[in-house]
Design a protein that fits this description.
By secondary structure, this protein is of the alpha/beta class. The protein has a seven-stranded parallel sheet with strand order 3-2-1-4-5-6-7, with helices on both faces. It is globular and about 60 Å long. 33% of the residues lie in helices and 20% in strands.
């Protein structure tokens, strides 16, 4: 059974589609999924929905201890990084030492560094991503990575789970009765945040004669 380690620097109150995707994948494939999360995530309600979970404060000692524990009985085959960057990413790269089995899931653009140490930061980024697999959640995110590492680079669009509408009731938002629909769109990227889908939904609302209040 292939051992997958999800390393995420994420402590939000919501779990998100990615965790649901991993749960579905675990049910469909012969894999075991374990998680390495920040200490702050212990208070998140969605933690109870996960399989084996380990925690770290991102220090060298903490990461070394967890990595040793993870590889005792069932060695890790694939390390999938999610929302991990900066110093924590560098420490993980040094300690885990398996670049051919590392996957970086990139939501944000990998920008060029500025300042008098920009050359050093560029070298570090090239070393960090060299020999690893990279997934960009939109074409522009993928393009931003090419100046640091162009091999093993893929675009996999962020998924939107429309089944979540059932949790609150779609009729609360779209109804045949006359009234006001209040819409709020969040996100700073047109493709990966689904703003294009939201814009099409608003067009349908307008064409249906509804009154709109845009926040």
């Amino acid at each position: 059974m292939k051992q997958i380690l999800i390393v995420a620097n994420l402590a939000s109150s919501f779990g998100g589609n990615f965790i649901e995707s991993m749960k579905s994948l675990q049910e469909a494939e012969e894999i075991s999924v374990r998680y390495l999360l920040p200490e702050q995530a212990k208070s998140c309600e969605w933690i109870s929905d996960l399989t084996e979970v380990h925690y770290t404060d991102w220090s060298f000692s903490s990461l070394k201890k967890v990595w040793h524990e993870l590889n005792q009985d069932a060695p890790v085959d694939v390390v999938h990084f999610h929302f991990v960057g900066g110093i924590p990413a560098i420490r993980c790269r040094l300690i885990f030492q398996c670049p051919e089995s590392m996957v970086w899931h990139l939501h944000n653009h990998v920008g060029s560094s500025k300042g008098h140490l920009s050359w050093l930061k560029t070298v570090l980024k090239k070393w960090l991503y060299h020999g690893t697999y990279k997934i960009g959640v939109s074409r522009s995110v993928t393009e931003s990575m090419k100046k640091f590492s162009s091999s093993h680079l893929f675009t996999i669009y962020n998924a939107l789970d429309f089944n979540r509408l059932a949790e609150v009731g779609e009729d609360r938002y779209i109804d045949d009765a006359p009234g006001t629909i209040r819409c709020m769109i969040m996100g700073n990227h047109f493709e990966r945040k689904g703003n294009d889908i939201a814009a099409k939904a608003i067009q349908k609302i307008i064409s249906g004669g509804y009154q709109q209040n845009f926040i």
